Amino acid sequence: MFYYFALALLLCASLEAAPKLRLVTAAVGPISVTQGANAASQTVEAYNAGDGNLNLSAASSVAWVSATIGGARPCNLREGNCLPVQFQFQTGGLAAGVHTGTVTLSDAGALDAPQNITVTVQVGGGVPSEVNLYVAPNGATDEARFSTNSVLVPNVNTQSGGPWLSLALEGSGSFRFVFPYRIVGRHQEGMAEGSYSGTVALSNSQVAAENRTVQVRMQVTSQPIARSAAAEVSFRIAAGAPALERPLTLFNGGMGTLTLSDATAASASGGSWLSVQRNGNAVTMKADPAGLGAGSYAGTVSIASNAANSPLRIPVRLDVVAAGPPFAAFGGVLNSASFDEGLAPGGVAAVFGEQLSSQAPGAAPAIPLATQLNGVRVLVNDQAAPLYYTSYNQVNFQIPLNTPVGEATIRVERDGTAGNALAVQIAERAPRIIQIGNNGIVVNARDGSMVNFGGKPAKAGDVLTIYLVGMGVTDPVVATGSPAPAAEPLARVAPEPKVILGSPFMGTIVLDPLFAGLTPSLVGLYQINVELPGDVPVGDIFLGVEGEGYRSNNIMIPIRE
Predict the structure, then answer these.
(1) What is the pLDDT of residues 58-94, one digit of tens each?
(2) For residue range 537-547, what is the model confidence (pLDDT) as tens digits?
(3) CA 546, CA 510: separation in Å to the nearest integer?
(4) From the CB of residue 339, how many other CB atoms can be counted at a distance below 10 Å?
(5) Nearest to 23, CA basis, from 121, 119, 122
(6) Is the confidence at residue 6, as pLDDT, over 90?
(7) What is the pTM of this model?
(8) With DSSP H G I counted as helix, E B as strand and the rest as coil, what are the percentages for the chain, rounded to 5?
(9) Domain count, the chain
(10) Domain containing 165 — which CATH number?
(11) Domain assignment of residue 299, given as a range
C-alpha cells in the first residue's frame, strides 16, 4: 500500500513540475497582402501554464513563413509573462489566392506540446470579384463570406428587385485584426422567379485590390439548391500514410427534392491524389498521399444534380507533412458522447490528432478489450488503456478505473514510438448523454423506437432508456475493459443520480430512476431507465442527469399527449 501511495505522490509531483504550453491564439490571419509584396510581420504570444520553464522551438511547413521565439516579456492580452512568437513573411512570390501553412511550436519537456499555429494569407486580397447567390421564393437567404484586415466602406446597389442585397460585418469589438464580412441576398415579398443583379462597391482597404466593385447575381428559383456543410475541405496526411476518406455533407437549401447524378474530382496539382465516390445522395471523398512529397496540393470536387446551382464545386486541399511520431492535438482528448472535456474513470474517451495509427481504421475484435490494437496503445498516466477503435486521426479508449481524480496525462504510442503528452482533468463522475447531431440516444421501451425529433415522441407513462458514458465507478466494480454483468448483481451507480426534465416555461421535475448503471454485457456504456409520470411537461423538453457535485449535458426530447 505504501508503495502505491508513494508512486502516486511521485507521479503528481512530476505532473506539477512540468511546464505546460499555452497559446493566446492558434491562428494567424487571414492576412490580406498585395500580390508581389511581403505581408507585415505578426506576433502570437505563448506562455507556461505549469511549472519550470518553456524551451520552445519553431518549425514551418511552408517556405513563405518563418517564426522565431523572443525573450520573455509581460503579456499583452493576459497577466504574467509570455514568449512572443514572431512571424516573418516572404509572400512576394506567391500567386494570387489563399495560401495556408502551419508553424509548429515544440518543447520535448513540456505537456501539451507540440502545438500548431495555422497561418493564412490572401494574396491579392480577400474580396471576390463576383458572387452568385441562389434563394427559394419563400423569404430565404444566401450569402458569400470573405474577410479583410480593414473596416470597409460599402456602397450597395441593386438594378432590380428592391433592397434584396446587403453587406454585413460579423461580430463587434474595438480590438480586432480580421474583419469577417457577408454579402447577403434575401428573397423579398413579391419577387418572381428569375435572375437579379446588383453591386457592392468597397473602399477604405489598405490593400488596393480589395477596393473593388463586386458583381452580385441572385437567382430566385423553386428548384432544389445544393448546399455543402463545408465551404472547403482540408486533409492533412503524413507522407507514406494510408489514404483518408471523409464524407461530404450535402443538403437541399431550396425546394423540391435534391437528387445527385454525378460526382467527380480534379487535382490542380500533384497528380490524381483526390477521388470521390457517390452512392445515391451520399458522397465520400478520398485523399491519397502516395508518391507525394511534403507540400500543399489543391483539388476540386464537383457534384452534379437537379439543383439550380449544379454543378456544386467544393475546393479541397491536401497538406502532406513529414512522417513523425504520433501527435495528439492540444485539447484533443474528449469524451465520446458529447465530445467535450468531461472525463471520468471508466469513461469512454477519444483522442484526436495525426499519425496516431499507420494502419487502416479498425475496431476491437472481442471483449474484454485489449490494450493494443493495430499497433496502437494509449497510455493514461503511463498505464495502457483498453482500446475500442484506432485510425489515423482518432483513437477511442476507456479511461482506467484506477485513474486518480485530478490531472492526468494521455499519450499515444504507435508501433513502439511514443507521442506527445497531453494534460487532462479527471472528475469522479462526468456523465455525458450520447448525442448524434442534436439528438440524444434515448430509447422508448414501449416499442424500441428512438425518442427524438426525427423519430417518435414520448408520452406520460413511457419508460425511457438514456444511454451515456462517464458515470464513474459502480457497485459492484467492473474491471477496466471488461463487460458489465448481465445478471444480478448488476453494476449500479451508487448513490443513484436524478433525472431532470423541464422547460424554461414550465419549470422542472426531478425523477428517481428505475435503474442507473452499466449496460449489461457491454464495456463502459451506462444506461438510466426512468418512467415518465402523469404530470410530465408536454412539449420540447430538456433532459439531463445530475448528482452530488456533477451534472450531465442537456439534450432535448419531444414529449406529447
Answers:
(1) 999 999 999 999 999 999 888 899 999 999 999 999 9
(2) 888 999 999 99
(3) 10
(4) 13
(5) 119
(6) no
(7) 0.89
(8) 5, 50, 45
(9) 5
(10) 2.60.40
(11) 233-320
